[in-house]
């Protein structure tokens, strides 16, 4: 059980003593991993890490000697049974489909979860009093993590995106959140259907990238000055918007190196200065970040981003009796979770509901596994399974990368 006092401690720490990490902080973390993480022992220069290497050397890259097959087994079981309470050597194991396409497993201790919650609260809540907030949180999977925030001063309602959209919308309207947290696709749905029945003080977008046009639409409908964004992935809580609407990297506990692509665009290489169970050291992300060309007017010393490229996915539409049902990209990504992490894929839905799956390795086993997951999803959500076919993975890299894409309707304009 995550300790509320621990959360409070990290909340206050982040609120009061937040300053930009230094080379000295970085060196301290490197000294820790050289001592406690087998992979880094006897290493002079610390190499750049990526998800593939991280997964290959999983057993040597955590402090508890947890073996990858055990962690993977537990994570897949949790996904299948939707029971996320199982633990391994006292830590939580999570599975991420990731927007980069590769599957990843992550390990976090209670202490790290408390720190995560404390940091998020410190940075995401409006300035001033925290008492009395009602937070509505839309997520795909339930987690002990979110339950941990429940307390007297803050009420927290979890919305399982696996449930029918209408049920969630009804529940949301009766809950009347002051803070609304959801992926952009869900925020769009809310903004389109029940904007006049809600009056949140703050709206926070998570999990997927919020596109500029969508942000404006949600802002307008839900009467917000800014739509806040949490920049986060398996690799941790990386950044959040300030009151001016700029995403700043959490440079208080993330040591950032930039692999420049051009003058403003770069791949981030991050070192999390706090994580101990499965440290992220010089970890290169696939996201392309675009730096702001001028300092943010909020006065923050942390780097400000113009935007994050390449994480936007589409909602799919399926037939349900004589109606249609919308399915969030997260669910489609989940159908691809059970394939090997080294396989590249892209799922494309045509206007007639049919699906083409582009995949870098096609075997009968893989086809069967994906088909099974789609059938299960169709069964759970009650839609007719469309025709689908498999083709070799191909992608036109001059276009923006979308893993989960629906064909546009070409209306005359
Ligand atoms: Zn700012």
From TrEMBL:
<dbReference type="InterPro" id="IPR042099">
    <property type="entry name" value="ANL_N_sf"/>
</dbReference>
<dbReference type="InterPro" id="IPR012685">
    <property type="entry name" value="CHP02304_F390_synth-rel"/>
</dbReference>
<dbReference type="InterPro" id="IPR053158">
    <property type="entry name" value="CapK_Type1_Caps_Biosynth"/>
</dbReference>
<protein>
    <submittedName>
        <fullName>Putative adenylate-forming enzyme</fullName>
    </submittedName>
</protein>
């Amino acid at each position: 059980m995550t300790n509320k006092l621990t959360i409070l401690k990290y909340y206050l720490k982040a609120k009061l003593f937040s300053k930009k990490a230094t080379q000295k902080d970085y060196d301290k973390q490197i000294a820790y991993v050289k001592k406690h993480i087998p992979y880094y022992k006897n290493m002079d220069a610390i190499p750049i890490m990526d998800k593939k290497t991280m997964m290959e050397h999983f057993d040597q890259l955590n402090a508890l000697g947890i073996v990858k097959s055990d962690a993977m087994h537990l994570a897949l079981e949790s996904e299948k049974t939707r029971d996320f309470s199982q633990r391994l050597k006292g830590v939580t194991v999570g599975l991420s489909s990731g927007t980069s396409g590769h599957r990843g497993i992550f390990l976090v201790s209670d202490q790290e979860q408390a720190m995560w919650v404390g940091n998020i609260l410190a940075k995401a809540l409006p300035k001033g009093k925290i008492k009395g907030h009602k937070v509505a949180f839309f997520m795909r999977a339930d987690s002990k993590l979110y339950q941990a925030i429940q307390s007297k001063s803050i009420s927290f309602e979890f919305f399982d995106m696996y449930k029918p959209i209408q049920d969630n919308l009804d529940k949301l309207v009766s809950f009347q959140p002051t803070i609304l947290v959801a992926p952009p696709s869900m925020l769009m749905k809310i903004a389109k259907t029940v904007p006049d029945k809600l009056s949140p003080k703050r709206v926070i977008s998570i999990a997927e990238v919020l596109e500029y046009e969508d942000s404006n639409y949600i802002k307008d409908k839900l009467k917000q000055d800014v739509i806040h964004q949490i920049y986060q992935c398996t690799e941790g809580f990386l950044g959040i918007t300030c009151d001016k609407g700029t995403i700043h990297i959490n440079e208080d506990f993330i040591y950032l190196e930039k692999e420049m692509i051009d003058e403003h665009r770069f791949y981030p290489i991050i070192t999390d200065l706090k994580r101990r169970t499965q440290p992220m050291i010089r970890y290169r992300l696939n996201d392309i970040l675009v730096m702001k060309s001028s300092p943010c007017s909020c006065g923050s010393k942390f780097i400000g981003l113009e935007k994050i490229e390449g994480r936007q996915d589409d909602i799919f539409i399926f037939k349900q009796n004589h109606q249609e049902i919308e399915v969030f990209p997260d669910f489609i990504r989940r159908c691809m979770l059970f394939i090997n992490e080294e396989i590249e894929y892209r799922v494309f839905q045509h206007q007639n509901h049919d699906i083409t799956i582009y995949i870098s390795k096609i075997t009968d086993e893989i086809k069967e596994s994906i088909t099974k997951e789609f059938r299960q999803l169709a069964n759970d959500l009650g839609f007719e399974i469309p025709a689908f076919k498999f083709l070799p993975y191909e992608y036109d890299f001059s276009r923006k990368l979308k893993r989960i894409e629906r064909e546009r309707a070409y209306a005359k304009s």
